[in-house]
Structures are given as structure tokens and as C-alpha cells.
Specification:
4-stranded mixed sheet; Ribosomal Protein S8, Chain: A, domain 1; about 200 residues; 7 helices; elongated; 2 domains; 4 strands; alpha+beta
Length: about 200
Amino acid sequence: MARSPRTTLVRAFDEARFGPARTLDLRTGLPTAMEAVRRAEPWLRERQMARAGEVLIVTGRGRGSPGGVGVVREAVQKLLATLRRQGVVARVVEHNPGAFVAELAPIRALFEQAPRSRSRSPREERSDPAVLASLDDAMRAELRLLAEYSLTQLGVPVEDGFLRDEMVRQFSILARGIGRDETDREGRLRFLINASRAAFEDDA
């Protein structure tokens, strides 16, 4: 089906405004709702770390979905609401019936929650040594420095117990930005830690 002149013009404006680096096309290839979410979450977290500002997420209208309900659109809309609560997305607006524009939150928003309570469940306590011990010394040192920045900004004493908890909390937050298909997970984690630390340093 040929595109109307208006549709062509709108797409041209979108390409000029966002470009390939700030556009996620979830319409091409007809992914399932689950596949779309699995693609969208790490991409949005990565774009936040790259300080991309506003991004365009194209879901399509869902005209070919059962009942005409856009399941990919609905799943992505729910994901965006979740990521707002988690400090990844600052604002979402409907760009058109088949796309959203998301304004990504500052990196520091990821860590501006109160640190976890030091009272943990047995399962969490058992997982702590494994989480931190799995990192090499250099990466653990970088994560420690990031945790120190975060605790200082929150006005929390930089003590061993709080520091360990904050390192585990931040590892958990940053690990969400690593896609399941990522081949260099260690390199990706190092990038995320360094980008987060740079954000704290910039605001210092």
C-alpha cells in the first residue's frame, strides 16, 4: 500500500528529530508482546545511560491484532509506566496512535531511592556474597565508588553494612540494563557503572 504524502512527511520529520539512534521500531518483524518488551527494556535503559534525552518507540496501532487491540502497544505502555516508577523514564506522551515519545530520566534517578533496609530475607542474604564475589577486583572497586557517591548524595553514612547493601542494590539496578542476548556482559556492566559514576561526578 502506498504511503500518503502526509504519512511520508511525518516520518521524515520523525527521522530528522530522532534519527536511528533514538528510535526503536517494534512494528517491523511483528514481534509478540513479550518479545517487544524484552527488546524495549534494555534498549531504554541503554539509551538512558547514553543520555539520549527523548526517544521514539514505534509499536504500530495493532490493526492486525485479534479484535483490533494492539497487544504490543499495550505491553509497551505498561512497561513505560513501570520504568517511570523505576527512574528510567521521566515522561511519556503519545506521539501518534502507533508510537510513544519517552523522555528519559537523568541517570541519577535510578539511585535516588532510599537504600534497602539492612534487614534482608534469608534468600537475599545468601545471594549477596555470590553477587559481589562474581565481580573482578577492578569492577568491584568501581561499583564501590559508585555506591559511595550514591550514599553521600542521599546523606547516608558510608559504612560497611550500608555500603555493601548499596553495592548489591546498584548491581541489581544496572543488571536490568543488560539484554539477555548481550555477548559481552562484563564489558556492558563496566560501561553502565562508569556511566552512572560519571553522572554523579558531573553533578558534584
